[in-house]
Design goal:
The chain is built from ten helices and two strands, in the order H-H-H-H-H-H-H-H-H-H-E-E. It is mainly α. A hairpin with a 4-residue loop joins strand 1 and strand 2.
Length: about 270
């Protein structure tokens, strides 16, 4: 079955899980469940489900493929059109699948087991929002993948519906969200652990590598990967933070760089 059809079913399933879990799971010492937070997340998830189901796929025609011009791509992204590594594609697929194990490693820790119900709900919310956002944006933007510009890919491959789903990288977003989610929970449960830097370093490196594999496979442009990385990281960090019972406030800072054309954004929690 096609990956995107599976994802659609996952979004619907998560909506049902969130509805049930928000009502039935009790509070924890670390995180707080409330309709003020979880109700909005549930609503957003259901909205994404409706938008994704109602939107149509876009298929490239033969004329459109033949008229594609590499020079129309910006310099930052242009290198992706020359990539076609099959092994890189396989590695990225493995990373997308294996990263699903990462949150379950929290059960190794005593505090993780005690908070398992609420952590499970937040995990479902993180996956639902990441998947829903990815699929909706892909269908709205309909950016053509690098492989469509590459003569080493078959015409059959180029004419698939997925060819117009380049922006943004779903693989990278998925790996990023679960990597940062796991790191954030460990950060919260064990604030004084000497392993926190290792955990955060792993969360940063793993999705970056997965994204690079998507680039080498000719599936995504660098900008697709950067946005996917950012979206996944934001959901992975903010979902637990919004639920956290703490006096610490979430702070978002913006520092102008050079002539002000660029901003350095930072999150503090």
């Amino acid at each position: 079955m096609e990956f995107y059809k599976i994802n659609r079913k996952l979004i619907i399933s998560f909506s049902i899980i969130l509805l049930y879990a928000s009502i039935s799971i009790g509070q924890s010492k670390m995180y707080n469940l409330s309709w003020n937070t979880d109700g909005y997340i549930l609503g957003a998830t259901m909205a994404f489900t409706a938008l994704e189901i109602s939107s149509e796929d876009k298929f490239l025609t033969l004329d459109e493929i033949q008229n594609l011009n590499r020079s129309s791509i910006n310099a930052f992204d242009q290198g992706a059109v020359f990539n076609n590594s099959v092994s890189a594609q396989r590695v990225s697929d493995h990373f997308r699948n294996l990263i699903n194990i990462a949150p379950f490693t929290l059960l190794i820790f005593e505090k993780g087991r005690k908070e398992a119900g609420v952590i499970g709900l937040m995990l479902a919310e993180t996956l639902a929002l990441t998947t829903g956002t990815t699929l909706v944006v892909k269908k709205m933007v309909r950016r053509i993948r690098p492989l469509a510009y590459n003569n080493k890919f078959s015409l059959e491959e180029k004419m698939k519906a997925g060819t117009t789903r380049s922006f943004f990288s779903g693989h990278t977003a998925h790996v990023s969200s679960l990597s940062f989610f796991t790191a954030k929970i460990i950060h919260d449960l064990y604030p004084n652990s000497k392993w926190r830097k290792v955990v955060w370093a792993s969360a940063i490196v793993i999705p970056a590598f997965a994204g690079y594999m998507r680039y080498k496979a000719g599936k995504h442009f660098p900008s697709d990967i950067l946005v996917g990385y950012g979206v996944g990281a934001v959901f992975g960090i903010l979902i637990p933070q919004f639920h956290k019972i703490s006096n610490d406030k979430l702070a978002i800072g913006a520092i102008p760089i050079s002539n002000g054309a660029m901003l350095n954004l930072s999150l503090k929690f």
